[in-house]
Amino acid sequence: MTTDGRRGGAWHRVRVFWAHLKVNLRDQGAYLGELAIGGGILVVFLCILGSLWQATYRAQNTETLAGLTWPQMVWYVTFTEAMVMSRVNVARRIDEDVRTGDLAYGLLRPGGYLTARLGAYVAERLVRFGFTLSVGALVAMLIAGPITVEPTAGIAALVVAAGAFLLEFILVAGIGLGAFWLEDTSGVYFVYTRVSMLLGGLLIPIELFPDTIRSVARALPFAPMIHGPARLALSPDASGLGATMATLTTATVVTGALVALTYRVALTRVTVQGG
Question: What's the pTM?
Answer without folding.
Answer: 0.88
